[in-house]
Amino acid sequence: xxxxxxxxxGTGSRLWPLSRELYPKQLxxxxxxxxxLQNTVLRTNGLEDVSExxxxxxxxxxxMVAEQLRPIAISPKAxxxxxxxxNTAPAVAVAALQALADDNDPLLLVLPSDHVIQNNAxxxxxxxxxxxxxxxxxxxxxxxxxxxxxxxxxxxxxxxxLGAKGEESGAFKVERFVEKPDRTTAEQYLASGDYYWNxxxxxxxxxxxxxxxxxxxxxxxxxxxxAYARAERDKDFVRLHAESFANCPSDSIDYxxxxxxxxxxxxxxxxxxxxxxxxxxLWEIGERDANDNVIKGDVLLHDVNGSYISAENRLxxxxxxxxxxxxETADAVLIARKDHVQDVKAIVNQLNAQGRKESVTHxxxxxxxxxxxxxxxxxxxxxxxxxxxxxxxxSLQMHHHRAEHWIVVKGTASIIKGGEVILLxxxxxxxxxxxxxxxxxxxxxxxxxxxxxxxxxxxxEDDIVRLEDIYGR
Length: 473
Known about the structure:
Jelly Rolls, 473 residues, alpha/beta, 30 strands, five-stranded mixed β-barrel, Spore Coat Polysaccharide Biosynthesis Protein SpsA, Chain A
């Protein structure tokens, strides 16, 4: 049995302003109509003897992850919630513990949720070729056949080929892992033919991984066992014990296990792989026009070449630029040369240092019941557009500092106001005074859309006193 382990804990800050802390790149449809997470899960369809996945994600993303799995008809074995990020080695350890609770030592196919693989058949063949080696106690990683002297990736040097004498197996003992090289060194790696890009994808048995982790990082495994044993189970979610997991050392699979074990094996993979780590990477894999431009949204160009331009909300026009990235969102615009996009993270760091919300959320904020988007904001008032999914409801709540006026523009709303239950349809409205207990619910089969006008001395999201909430917030 192969259990895909989908790692969905990153923030993708180099793809700001589309990717943000509370809505990162793996939850975005960057390369087609499906999100990166959905593409990753669907990529495992067709593998022999494969089960539903285990997903490991940030607790803040839990409802978005669950909602994205539902339309692709995936019922995960579990969604493990990390209270804090502790890198990939602990994430895979708790996934291995979950897998062993359900199956007798399955193989774990560890996949980051934000990669692109264009040749799925080649990907499946590499997994099939490695399965027997993994069952035999080897820890496999997939090394990407390099097509350029890339300085942004770590490398794996292949050693002796495995297999019987005179036979080619296509798998090699790992001689060593190497850090991101400079340009000259990367060119030497490419010329030698012995080095592969480190993909961060793995295949090994759950027991073998935990045994090697116990050998090389016993304190990490101890913390993971405790966090898993003390976890709370809630519907689709396994909430790891916060204090135990916070005490876990933070390290990658490479550092914790793969660089130390004698059982590391690399299988070369040439399947059109990209980790989509920057805007230039998206340009590389995107569909380009006659002038080498990748265009998304409402964009007009004149004398523009080699650029990636995305418009989310309004018309973007560009004239006389070459090799640029221009990204427009509702509340931020990024303009950068393609050869400087690795530095976008520096802007995110500045936003964080200034305490600005543009690094954390979009104007459209997703919630387990739907989403809301700020339309206008000024002193003592705010206007929002709210969408409530069919059958969903907000918490029973009240506010100390604001009143609210709701106008239904689409669908039907069931509203608790104090002791009353009121049903509203399109073009009807209701006023919720400050301090009054209320709840909004969509009893219909289509999304409920309404306009909310808030007024008061303080309009922050922390002025919500939840009295009852089906989502456990």
